[in-house]
Specification:
The chain contains one helix and ten strands, in the order H-E-E-E-E-E-E-E-E-E-E. It is mainly beta and 237 residues long. The chain starts with a helix and ends in a 12-residue tail after the last strand. An eight-stranded antiparallel barrel has the order 1-2-3-4-5-7-8-10. The longest helix has 21 residues. The chain has a single domain, classed as Porin.
């Protein structure tokens, strides 16, 4: 898996370099939205005495900024007019998920506990955006870092820190579809980790995956047009 992640990042860098050299339009925007987050254990049985499973996910919110570079929207082209641009995004948000653990003691007695995780996360990505008229498709690698995470255990009043349960940095991917207007666009995104996201559960080593679905509204606040860029196959008078 790590080998494919390196290839994915290299491909994203080459796409970024190509668009940076051939760009004519530079956009800066802001965005925000709501999300649905869920934690999923890779294995349910993590020891002879501990069994875990995923619970329901939790809604979240996020805000961020984006930067896009690409050819002008009005560039004439014969045939299917698919335009591509590089979309760099950075966001900060709150999310979480529920998980359930069942502990079996040597006497055969079992105790089931529900844990509610809450985490504050940063998500950073460089994606390729393909546009056909107002329709847009995006795909690219992501980097996520957890600023803080806490957990509430059923039957325990005090919230505990769970920061050590999650990797400080994880790599993943994101894809999505959207509708793009003149200055605003709305999109639906799916994000999933490729490297370790969760690395332990209640002090027991365990690999826990995460996915996030985001409904996003973005608005462009600044645009700069470079004019004719003769390095680009998209330049025009």
């Amino acid at each position: 898996m790590k080998k494919y992640i390196r290839y994915f990042i290299l491909l994203a860098f080459l796409v970024f370099l190509n668009h940076a050299l051939n760009a004519q339009i530079y956009d800066i925007g802001v965005f925000g939205g709501v999300s649905y987050n869920k934690l999923i254990p890779e294995k349910n049985t993590i020891s002879n005495t501990l069994f875990i499973r995923d619970g329901i996910g939790k809604p979240g919110v996020f805000i961020g900024m984006n930067y896009a570079i690409g050819p002008p929207k009005d560039q004439p082209k014969k045939g299917l007019d698919i335009k591509s641009k590089l979309l760099v995004e950075a966001s900060y948000g709150k999310g979480g998920s529920y998980m359930t653990s069942t502990y079996s003691n040597p006497n055969g007695n079992k105790k089931t506990t529900e844990i509610e995780y809450t985490f504050y996360r940063g998500d950073y990505s460089a994606k390729l955006a393909l546009g056909l008229k107002k329709f847009q498709f995006v795909i690219g690698p992501t980097v996520t870092n957890i600023f803080y995470s806490g957990m509430d255990i059923s039957g325990v009043d005090k919230t505990r820190s769970a920061t050590g349960d999650f990797a400080s940095i994880s790599i993943g991917y994101e894809l999505g579809v959207g509708i793009e207007g003149d200055a605003a666009n709305i999109s639906l995104r799916y994000q999933r980790n490729a490297s370790d996201f969760g690395q332990r559960f209640m002090a027991t080593p365990a690999k826990i995956n995460n996915y996030q679905i985001r409904l996003m509204l973005a608005y462009r606040i600044y645009r700069k047009h470079n004019g004719i860029n003769r390095r680009s196959i998209n330049w025009h008078k």
